[in-house]
Amino acid sequence: MDDDVTELPPLDDLLETARVVAIPLHTRFRGQTVRELVVFEGPEGWTEFSPFPEYDDAEAASWLRGAIEFGYARMPTALRAEIMVNATLPAVAASEVARVLSRYDGCRTVKVKVAETGQTLDDDVARVREARAVLGAEGRVRIDANGGWNVDEAEHAIHRLCEFDLEYVEQPCATVDELAEIRGRVAYMGIPIAADESVRKAADPLAVAKAGAADLLVIKAQPLGGVRRAIEVVRLAGLPAVVSSALESSVGIAMGAHLAAALPELDYDCGLATVDLFTGDVTHDSLGPRAGRIPVTRPDVDPALLDRYRASPDRELWWRDRLTRCHALLH
Ligand SMILES: O=C(O)CCC(=O)c1ccccc1C(=O)O
Ligand SMILES: [Mg+2]
Question: Which residues form the active site (predicted)?
Fold first, then answer.
Protein backbone atom coordinates (compact mmCIF):
# COMPACT_ATOMS: atom_id res chain seq x y z
CA MET A 1 0.00 0.00 0.00
CA ASP A 2 1.26 3.50 -0.58
CA ASP A 3 1.83 6.28 1.88
CA ASP A 4 -1.57 7.91 1.48
CA VAL A 5 -3.02 5.49 4.02
CA THR A 6 -0.87 3.44 6.37
CA GLU A 7 1.30 0.38 6.27
CA LEU A 8 -0.66 -2.55 4.92
CA PRO A 9 -1.74 -4.46 8.06
CA PRO A 10 -0.81 -8.16 8.17
CA LEU A 11 -3.45 -10.45 6.67
CA ASP A 12 -3.87 -12.31 9.97
CA ASP A 13 -4.91 -9.07 11.70
CA LEU A 14 -7.71 -8.63 9.18
CA LEU A 15 -8.84 -12.25 9.28
CA GLU A 16 -8.82 -12.37 13.08
CA THR A 17 -11.79 -10.02 13.47
CA ALA A 18 -13.37 -10.54 10.04
CA ARG A 19 -17.01 -11.67 10.07
CA VAL A 20 -18.99 -12.53 6.97
CA VAL A 21 -22.69 -11.73 6.99
CA ALA A 22 -25.56 -12.11 4.50
CA ILE A 23 -28.40 -9.63 4.97
CA PRO A 24 -31.64 -10.08 3.01
CA LEU A 25 -32.89 -7.03 1.07
CA HIS A 26 -36.49 -5.79 1.16
CA THR A 27 -36.43 -5.30 -2.61
CA ARG A 28 -34.32 -6.82 -5.37
CA PHE A 29 -31.38 -4.50 -6.17
CA ARG A 30 -28.77 -5.08 -8.91
CA GLY A 31 -30.46 -8.45 -9.41
CA GLN A 32 -29.67 -9.49 -5.85
CA THR A 33 -31.95 -10.30 -2.95
CA VAL A 34 -29.27 -10.82 -0.30
CA ARG A 35 -26.24 -8.62 0.36
CA GLU A 36 -23.11 -10.41 1.50
CA LEU A 37 -20.35 -8.41 3.16
CA VAL A 38 -17.37 -8.65 5.51
CA VAL A 39 -16.82 -6.44 8.53
CA PHE A 40 -13.54 -6.30 10.45
CA GLU A 41 -12.18 -4.18 13.26
CA GLY A 42 -9.09 -1.98 13.12
CA PRO A 43 -7.61 0.45 15.64
CA GLU A 44 -9.93 3.22 14.39
CA GLY A 45 -13.03 1.03 14.60
CA TRP A 46 -15.13 -1.33 12.49
CA THR A 47 -14.85 -1.25 8.73
CA GLU A 48 -16.45 -3.04 5.78
CA PHE A 49 -15.18 -4.96 2.73
CA SER A 50 -18.02 -5.65 0.31
CA PRO A 51 -17.19 -5.69 -3.42
CA PHE A 52 -20.01 -7.27 -5.41
CA PRO A 53 -19.56 -11.03 -5.90
CA GLU A 54 -18.95 -10.86 -9.67
CA TYR A 55 -16.08 -8.34 -9.45
CA ASP A 56 -12.60 -9.68 -10.16
CA ASP A 57 -9.79 -9.51 -7.62
CA ALA A 58 -8.10 -6.47 -9.16
CA GLU A 59 -11.30 -4.43 -8.79
CA ALA A 60 -12.11 -5.88 -5.35
CA ALA A 61 -8.60 -5.03 -4.09
CA SER A 62 -9.42 -1.36 -4.44
CA TRP A 63 -12.43 -1.91 -2.15
CA LEU A 64 -10.10 -3.62 0.37
CA ARG A 65 -7.75 -0.63 0.28
CA GLY A 66 -10.73 1.56 1.15
CA ALA A 67 -11.85 -0.82 3.90
CA ILE A 68 -8.38 -0.91 5.47
CA GLU A 69 -8.08 2.87 5.40
CA PHE A 70 -11.36 3.30 7.29
CA GLY A 71 -10.32 0.78 9.96
CA TYR A 72 -6.68 1.80 10.32
CA ALA A 73 -6.21 5.45 9.32
CA ARG A 74 -7.43 8.68 10.83
CA MET A 75 -10.27 10.20 8.87
CA PRO A 76 -9.85 13.72 7.47
CA THR A 77 -11.48 16.53 9.42
CA ALA A 78 -15.27 16.43 9.25
CA LEU A 79 -16.67 19.75 8.03
CA ARG A 80 -20.26 18.76 8.83
CA ALA A 81 -21.96 16.57 11.47
CA GLU A 82 -24.86 15.34 9.34
CA ILE A 83 -25.35 14.51 5.68
CA MET A 84 -28.56 15.13 3.72
CA VAL A 85 -29.45 11.94 1.86
CA ASN A 86 -31.71 10.77 -0.97
CA ALA A 87 -34.12 7.88 -1.00
CA THR A 88 -33.04 5.19 -3.46
CA LEU A 89 -35.90 3.68 -5.43
CA PRO A 90 -35.11 0.33 -7.09
CA ALA A 91 -36.76 -0.57 -10.40
CA VAL A 92 -40.04 -1.61 -8.77
CA ALA A 93 -43.53 -1.43 -10.28
CA ALA A 94 -45.24 1.96 -10.09
CA SER A 95 -47.79 0.45 -7.70
CA GLU A 96 -45.00 -0.26 -5.17
CA VAL A 97 -43.36 3.17 -5.27
CA ALA A 98 -45.30 4.77 -2.41
CA ARG A 99 -44.71 1.76 -0.16
CA VAL A 100 -40.95 1.65 -0.85
CA LEU A 101 -40.54 5.41 -0.39
CA SER A 102 -42.43 5.34 2.91
CA ARG A 103 -39.39 3.57 4.46
CA TYR A 104 -37.22 6.68 3.98
CA ASP A 105 -37.88 9.25 6.68
CA GLY A 106 -38.04 12.83 5.47
CA CYS A 107 -35.97 12.56 2.26
CA ARG A 108 -36.70 15.46 -0.10
CA THR A 109 -34.73 13.80 -2.91
CA VAL A 110 -35.33 10.45 -4.64
CA LYS A 111 -33.04 8.60 -6.99
CA VAL A 112 -35.07 6.39 -9.31
CA LYS A 113 -33.47 3.39 -11.00
CA VAL A 114 -34.36 3.17 -14.70
CA ALA A 115 -33.34 1.17 -17.80
CA GLU A 116 -33.50 -2.11 -15.89
CA THR A 117 -32.99 -5.21 -18.08
CA GLY A 118 -36.34 -6.76 -19.03
CA GLN A 119 -38.32 -3.55 -18.47
CA THR A 120 -39.58 -0.90 -20.89
CA LEU A 121 -39.38 2.87 -21.02
CA ASP A 122 -43.09 2.90 -20.16
CA ASP A 123 -42.20 1.15 -16.89
CA ASP A 124 -39.61 3.86 -16.18
CA VAL A 125 -42.04 6.68 -17.00
CA ALA A 126 -44.69 5.19 -14.71
CA ARG A 127 -42.18 4.77 -11.86
CA VAL A 128 -40.74 8.28 -12.19
CA ARG A 129 -44.25 9.79 -12.46
CA GLU A 130 -45.25 8.04 -9.25
CA ALA A 131 -42.05 9.13 -7.45
CA ARG A 132 -42.71 12.74 -8.47
CA ALA A 133 -46.31 12.44 -7.26
CA VAL A 134 -45.23 11.07 -3.86
CA LEU A 135 -42.53 13.74 -3.44
CA GLY A 136 -44.55 16.73 -4.66
CA ALA A 137 -43.39 19.62 -6.81
CA GLU A 138 -40.69 20.70 -4.35
CA GLY A 139 -38.96 17.34 -4.14
CA ARG A 140 -35.95 16.51 -6.25
CA VAL A 141 -36.05 13.57 -8.63
CA ARG A 142 -32.90 12.17 -10.21
CA ILE A 143 -32.63 9.00 -12.29
CA ASP A 144 -29.88 6.37 -12.63
CA ALA A 145 -29.71 4.21 -15.78
CA ASN A 146 -26.50 2.37 -14.80
CA GLY A 147 -25.27 2.73 -18.37
CA GLY A 148 -28.27 0.83 -19.74
CA TRP A 149 -29.06 3.03 -22.75
CA ASN A 150 -27.26 3.75 -26.01
CA VAL A 151 -27.11 7.42 -26.96
CA ASP A 152 -30.32 7.43 -29.03
CA GLU A 153 -32.24 5.50 -26.38
CA ALA A 154 -30.98 7.90 -23.74
CA GLU A 155 -32.02 10.93 -25.74
CA HIS A 156 -35.48 9.48 -26.31
CA ALA A 157 -35.86 8.48 -22.64
CA ILE A 158 -34.68 11.85 -21.32
CA HIS A 159 -37.12 13.61 -23.65
CA ARG A 160 -39.98 11.59 -22.17
CA LEU A 161 -38.81 11.86 -18.56
CA CYS A 162 -37.90 15.54 -18.53
CA GLU A 163 -41.55 16.47 -17.85
CA PHE A 164 -40.93 15.24 -14.29
CA ASP A 165 -38.26 17.93 -13.76
CA LEU A 166 -35.11 15.85 -13.35
CA GLU A 167 -32.32 17.07 -11.08
CA TYR A 168 -29.81 15.06 -13.14
CA VAL A 169 -29.38 11.82 -15.09
CA GLU A 170 -26.79 9.41 -13.69
CA GLN A 171 -24.76 7.26 -16.09
CA PRO A 172 -27.32 7.22 -18.95
CA CYS A 173 -24.82 5.40 -21.20
CA ALA A 174 -21.88 3.12 -20.51
CA THR A 175 -18.85 4.82 -22.03
CA VAL A 176 -17.18 8.20 -21.57
CA ASP A 177 -17.60 8.97 -25.30
CA GLU A 178 -21.33 8.22 -25.13
CA LEU A 179 -21.69 10.37 -21.99
CA ALA A 180 -20.03 13.28 -23.80
CA GLU A 181 -22.37 12.80 -26.76
CA ILE A 182 -25.61 12.58 -24.75
CA ARG A 183 -24.52 15.47 -22.55
CA GLY A 184 -24.25 17.63 -25.66
CA ARG A 185 -27.59 16.44 -27.04
CA VAL A 186 -29.62 17.21 -23.90
CA ALA A 187 -27.76 20.34 -22.81
CA TYR A 188 -30.52 22.55 -24.29
CA MET A 189 -32.97 20.94 -21.83
CA GLY A 190 -30.77 22.01 -18.93
CA ILE A 191 -30.46 18.48 -17.55
CA PRO A 192 -27.06 17.74 -15.98
CA ILE A 193 -25.30 14.42 -16.58
CA ALA A 194 -23.67 12.57 -13.67
CA ALA A 195 -20.98 9.90 -14.04
CA ASP A 196 -20.89 6.90 -11.69
CA GLU A 197 -19.49 3.70 -13.26
CA SER A 198 -17.32 5.92 -15.49
CA VAL A 199 -15.60 7.09 -12.29
CA ARG A 200 -15.48 4.09 -9.98
CA LYS A 201 -14.90 1.32 -12.57
CA ALA A 202 -12.61 3.23 -14.95
CA ALA A 203 -8.86 2.69 -15.20
CA ASP A 204 -8.63 6.48 -14.84
CA PRO A 205 -11.36 7.94 -12.60
CA LEU A 206 -10.53 11.38 -13.99
CA ALA A 207 -11.03 10.47 -17.65
CA VAL A 208 -14.69 11.52 -17.60
CA ALA A 209 -13.84 14.95 -16.19
CA LYS A 210 -10.93 15.44 -18.61
CA ALA A 211 -13.26 14.61 -21.51
CA GLY A 212 -15.88 17.11 -20.33
CA ALA A 213 -18.36 14.22 -20.37
CA ALA A 214 -20.21 14.96 -17.10
CA ASP A 215 -21.53 17.85 -15.04
CA LEU A 216 -21.03 16.08 -11.73
CA LEU A 217 -19.46 12.93 -10.29
CA VAL A 218 -20.93 10.17 -8.16
CA ILE A 219 -18.24 9.21 -5.67
CA LYS A 220 -18.03 5.99 -3.63
CA ALA A 221 -15.42 5.56 -0.93
CA GLN A 222 -14.81 1.80 -0.96
CA PRO A 223 -14.60 1.32 -4.77
CA LEU A 224 -12.29 4.31 -5.17
CA GLY A 225 -9.83 2.88 -2.65
CA GLY A 226 -10.86 4.94 0.33
CA VAL A 227 -11.94 8.32 1.61
CA ARG A 228 -8.64 10.10 0.90
CA ARG A 229 -8.42 8.89 -2.68
CA ALA A 230 -12.04 9.82 -3.32
CA ILE A 231 -11.45 13.34 -1.99
CA GLU A 232 -8.45 13.60 -4.31
CA VAL A 233 -10.54 12.48 -7.32
CA VAL A 234 -13.09 15.19 -6.59
CA ARG A 235 -10.40 17.84 -6.13
CA LEU A 236 -8.61 16.96 -9.37
CA ALA A 237 -11.86 16.63 -11.34
CA GLY A 238 -13.00 20.06 -10.25
CA LEU A 239 -16.64 19.00 -10.50
CA PRO A 240 -19.46 18.88 -7.92
CA ALA A 241 -19.78 15.48 -6.26
CA VAL A 242 -22.55 13.31 -4.86
CA VAL A 243 -21.32 10.76 -2.34
CA SER A 244 -23.13 7.48 -2.73
CA SER A 245 -23.18 4.06 -1.11
CA ALA A 246 -22.22 0.76 -2.64
CA LEU A 247 -25.17 -0.91 -0.90
CA GLU A 248 -23.31 -1.38 2.36
CA SER A 249 -24.24 -2.06 5.97
CA SER A 250 -24.17 0.91 8.34
CA VAL A 251 -20.42 0.37 8.73
CA GLY A 252 -19.77 1.01 5.03
CA ILE A 253 -22.32 3.83 5.03
CA ALA A 254 -20.32 5.46 7.84
CA MET A 255 -17.28 5.44 5.54
CA GLY A 256 -19.35 7.29 2.93
CA ALA A 257 -20.61 9.72 5.55
CA HIS A 258 -17.02 10.52 6.57
CA LEU A 259 -16.17 11.15 2.90
CA ALA A 260 -19.19 13.42 2.46
CA ALA A 261 -18.34 15.25 5.69
CA ALA A 262 -14.79 16.00 4.51
CA LEU A 263 -15.58 17.39 1.03
CA PRO A 264 -15.12 21.17 0.87
CA GLU A 265 -18.35 21.52 -1.11
CA LEU A 266 -21.44 19.33 -0.96
CA ASP A 267 -24.36 20.76 -2.89
CA TYR A 268 -26.36 17.61 -3.61
CA ASP A 269 -28.11 15.17 -1.31
CA CYS A 270 -26.05 11.99 -1.03
CA GLY A 271 -27.01 8.40 -1.92
CA LEU A 272 -26.30 7.14 1.59
CA ALA A 273 -29.81 6.11 2.71
CA THR A 274 -29.52 2.56 1.41
CA VAL A 275 -29.62 0.71 4.73
CA ASP A 276 -33.37 1.17 4.37
CA LEU A 277 -33.18 -1.38 1.53
CA PHE A 278 -31.83 -3.95 4.04
CA THR A 279 -34.04 -6.02 6.33
CA GLY A 280 -31.36 -5.89 9.04
CA ASP A 281 -27.97 -4.50 9.97
CA VAL A 282 -24.81 -5.29 11.96
CA THR A 283 -25.49 -2.52 14.48
CA HIS A 284 -28.38 -1.15 16.51
CA ASP A 285 -27.15 2.39 15.67
CA SER A 286 -28.33 1.92 12.09
CA LEU A 287 -27.51 4.81 9.76
CA GLY A 288 -30.95 4.95 8.18
CA PRO A 289 -32.18 8.49 7.45
CA ARG A 290 -34.01 10.54 10.09
CA ALA A 291 -35.58 13.74 8.78
CA GLY A 292 -33.71 13.21 5.53
CA ARG A 293 -30.23 13.04 7.03
CA ILE A 294 -27.71 10.68 8.59
CA PRO A 295 -25.15 11.51 11.29
CA VAL A 296 -21.39 11.32 10.70
CA THR A 297 -20.59 8.64 13.27
CA ARG A 298 -18.97 5.21 13.55
CA PRO A 299 -21.65 2.70 14.53
CA ASP A 300 -20.92 0.05 17.16
CA VAL A 301 -21.16 -3.47 15.76
CA ASP A 302 -23.28 -5.90 17.80
CA PRO A 303 -21.87 -9.46 18.01
CA ALA A 304 -25.41 -10.85 18.35
CA LEU A 305 -26.31 -9.32 14.98
CA LEU A 306 -23.16 -10.78 13.42
CA ASP A 307 -24.39 -14.16 14.62
CA ARG A 308 -27.93 -13.58 13.43
CA TYR A 309 -26.83 -12.74 9.86
CA ARG A 310 -23.82 -15.06 9.75
CA ALA A 311 -23.17 -16.33 6.21
CA SER A 312 -23.09 -20.06 5.40
CA PRO A 313 -19.73 -21.83 5.93
CA ASP A 314 -19.03 -22.07 2.20
CA ARG A 315 -19.71 -18.36 1.64
CA GLU A 316 -17.58 -17.51 4.65
CA LEU A 317 -14.69 -19.44 3.14
CA TRP A 318 -15.25 -17.80 -0.23
CA TRP A 319 -15.03 -14.31 1.28
CA ARG A 320 -12.00 -15.09 3.43
CA ASP A 321 -10.20 -16.46 0.34
CA ARG A 322 -11.18 -13.37 -1.60
CA LEU A 323 -9.94 -11.08 1.15
CA THR A 324 -6.66 -13.05 1.22
CA ARG A 325 -6.14 -12.73 -2.56
CA CYS A 326 -6.98 -9.02 -2.54
CA HIS A 327 -4.60 -8.42 0.37
CA ALA A 328 -1.80 -10.04 -1.67
CA LEU A 329 -2.61 -7.71 -4.58
CA LEU A 330 -2.16 -4.64 -2.38
CA HIS A 331 1.50 -5.46 -1.70
O1 LIG B 1 -26.98 6.49 -5.01
C2 LIG B 1 -27.89 5.95 -4.35
O3 LIG B 1 -28.99 6.52 -4.16
C4 LIG B 1 -27.70 4.60 -3.74
C5 LIG B 1 -26.58 3.76 -4.22
C6 LIG B 1 -26.77 3.12 -5.56
O7 LIG B 1 -27.65 3.47 -6.30
C8 LIG B 1 -25.89 2.01 -5.91
C9 LIG B 1 -25.62 1.07 -4.95
C10 LIG B 1 -24.83 -0.03 -5.24
C11 LIG B 1 -24.31 -0.18 -6.50
C12 LIG B 1 -24.55 0.77 -7.49
C13 LIG B 1 -25.33 1.88 -7.20
C14 LIG B 1 -25.49 2.93 -8.27
O15 LIG B 1 -25.53 4.13 -8.00
O16 LIG B 1 -25.49 2.60 -9.45
MG1 LIG C 1 -25.25 4.79 -10.13
Answer: 113 (proton donor), 220 (proton acceptor)
* Closest ligand to Cα 111: 1
196 lines ligand 1 (CB under 6 A): yes
Q: What is the pTM of this model?
A: 0.97
Residue nearest to atom 3 of ligand 1 (CA): 271
ipTM: 0.97
Please indicate, yes or no, whether residues 42 and 135 belong to a single structural domain of this protein.
Answer: no
Buried-exposed string 273-304: b where 16+ CB fall within 10 A, e elsewhere:
bbbbbbeebbbeebbbbeebbbebbbbebeee
pLDDT digits (tens, 9 = 90+) for 230-275: 999 999 999 999 999 999 999 999 999 999 999 999 999 999 999 9
Structural domain span for residue 234: 82-301
Residue 199 lies in a domain: yes
Number of domains in the chain: 2
CB-count burial class (<10 Å; 0-12, 13-18, 19+) for 267: exposed
